[in-house]
Design brief:
Layout lengths: L89 H28 L9 H23 L3 H6 L1 E5 L7 H16 L14 H6 L1 E5 L12
Antiparallel strand pairs: 1-2
Helix pairs in contact: 2-4
Length: 225
């Protein structure tokens, strides 16, 4: 039995491709595409960071940009300050009081008409409750408009406004005292109102306020939305 020569390849040493097929070479790697240089930009490689900006360390916090200062909002001055308004004259105060009394008289007339329509009779025993209702209505009619706007409907008609001594809006306690002073003035036939000839009436003195003439809005003033 003959043995193969040592220099001859064995069965498992033969390549898997055909012997007549040439060995393929792997293609060379493609070069990375280069970004075209822009106008005014050097053609060489650029550094990762500019020369005047060193790279920040990973643990250092980023510097926050300073917030811009808020601009003050300018609002148009529609009315002059209360200190520049003149004191309300006696005629304007009387006109305001007359307007308020007309509103109360209209409420009384509507109530009496309603009682008549219902076929009821207003007895003498019912008068205290009826007067209590009128007092409550006059209190709300005077206190709420004075506290929020400084004017009752009668004062709006007469063109006057009430302010405290610091030229600010009235507090609820001051409006309540003005209502009480108005009742006392009506009970005394309006004689305490003569103090307005000196600048402040009895109602102003009792409530710690003063009554001024309201300035009208200028013709070119922007109307509130």
């Amino acid at each position: 039995m003959s043995h193969p020569a040592p220099d001859e390849p064995g069965l498992f040493d033969l390549p898997l491709r055909p012997l007549d097929e040439p060995e393929r070479e792997s293609p060379p790697p493609r070069p990375a595409p280069r970004r075209p240089a822009r106008s005014g930009e050097p053609s060489g490689s650029l550094p990762l960071f500019p020369a005047d900006e060193p790279p920040a360390s990973p643990g250092a916090p980023a510097a926050a940009a300073p917030a811009p200062a808020p601009r003050p909002v300018e609002r148009p001055q529609l009315l002059p300050p209360p200190a520049e308004l003149p004191a309300a004259p006696l005629a304007a105060r009387a006109k305001a009081a007359g307007g308020n009394l007309l509103v109360l008289a209209a409420v009384v007339a509507v109530q009496l008409l309603g009682v008549e329509r219902l076929g009821a009779t207003l007895r003498v025993a019912d008068w205290p409750a009826y007067l209590a209702f009128l007092l409550a209505f006059s209190f709300l009619y005077s206190v709420i408009p004075l506290a929020f706007w400084g004017q009752t409907p009668g004062m709006v008609w007469a063109g006057i406004v009430a302010r405290n001594l610091d030229d600010g809006p009235l507090a609820f306690g001051q409006t309540a005292r003005r209502w009480l002073g108005g009742l006392l003035s009506c009970a005394l036939l309006g004689l305490p109102a003569l103090g307005a000839l000196g600048g402040r009436s009895f109602v102003d003195w009792l409530s710690g306020s003063h009554t001024l003439r309201a300035a009208p809005l200028p013709a070119d003033a922007p109307q509130p939305a």
